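Exam review. A common question shows you a sequence with its structure tokens and asks you to describe the fold in words. Practice with the pair below. Do the first one on your own.
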Amino acid sequence: MFDMAGDDVISFGLGEPDFQPPQVAIDAMHQAMLAGHNKYTTTAGLPELRLKIAESLGYLQPGMDESNVCMTMSGTNALLNCFLTLVNPGSNVLMPEPYFPLYGPDVLIAGGESRFYPCLFENEFIPQIDVLESLVDEDTVAILYNFPSNPTGATITSEQRDELLAFAKRHDLWIITDEVYDRIVYDVNHVSFLGTGYDQTLLINSFSKTFAMTGWRIGYICCPNPDTVRQIIKMQYYITACSNDAMQYAVLTAFDEASNYPEEMAKEFQARRDLICGRLNAMPGVSCHVPKGAFYVFPKMEVPGLSSEELAIELLHGGVLASPGSAFGESGEGHIRFAYTISRDDISAGMDKVEAVLARLRGE
């Protein structure tokens, strides 16, 4: 899709904030490099940063320290660490669908099988317990939850979280909870799987979204059980040895001096969300949930005779780049993902183009 796009195309395709990291973090990385922090760190990462992360999560899980955290080269690195730690050949993992496209291949790399549980539009993209029960067996070792979700923007309530937690406990499953959008939420408080009293919980997080550091590639894994973290650290060593030295000092500075930065971004994203959802829901034949997290909308946008991929290509020819729902699994068919990581003016212009393409396809 990117290769086909021309220079005049308005892109809703990339899940990347159109902000820069906080200036204090950029300056801190420069100063750290000048100060000689250009070497290997310990595999688990800078102790001061790990402690800061543990303390920041203390409102969920009191009493944690640096032994509960392992720094990684991004959230995607963290995911692979977890799967390599937990999955053996013959094991399977329950995965959400629509999904972040790296989930399934990561399990395959670890020698396991992914079993996808549908998160459907009619259920506001929340998994249903009876469906989960139909997929789990004695070889299931873990379930992955992703809230707020990429690509749907779905979030969960505490009650829904507790039902999903009870399911995992009932089957003695590890919970891998991908919460990289935890600070980009609207109208609600983020609901985490950390702090529920279940030690078989691995929290995946990243600074890519919260501090607009996508290109810096830095994230972490947190677990209430330090013994589990020690096993994770083994995998971290064999995958990337350690995270970036100077960058960890920069993130530590962002924690201390730009702690409100994610909320400032979220205010702008919320205004964009309201704009794009209002426009989409006003279009004939389009239905769009108003997401409470992340920066994606995943409307049901069906045109008779066209798959979501074919519709995405029609939109591209009309000057808009968006992602076909089928790129996120079979359950995404009939949907298009729009990332509202562009200006409000561009969103408005892009929605004008979408409206024109849909009218043309309807023969108007």
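Now try the second one, then compare your answer with the model answer below.
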Amino acid sequence: MRAVVQRVTHASVAVDGATIGEINRGLLVLLGAGAGDTDEDLAYIVEKIVNLRIFSDLAGKMNLSVLDIGGGVLMISQFTLYGDARKGRRPAFTSALEPVAAKALYLRSIELVRAAGVQHVAAGSFGADMQVSLCNDGPVTIILDSSKAF
């Protein structure tokens, strides 16, 4: 499982011109599931997301998590995180988890983030053509991978 985590001052997602999710200060998470990903991969990623210390404390050091600041999380499904563009010019997505299982993991990720204590969790629509708007704070962007490839 892969996640691109961005610290934001605000973020929103729209489908067909209508906003379906938005947060203020917190994290925008682009989440992709790979072939073979399991509940263990999901648990690892969610634990990292909610406890990642990328918000500044009073001394200006990145020492606080989204839980510590009472921030929100906007979860967006993003199978293209498994796009392989090493050969040719068109990415292949054969490493992405098939849609039914990927959707189940994505929906479970939202539940787990809430269960971890994040008060405001918003989400995109799995498989939809979404427009995501954000103001990256810092900018701070962290890439997570449950296989610990990076």
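Model answer, second protein: The chain has one domain: 2-145. The radius of gyration is 15 Å. Full marks require stating both points clearly.
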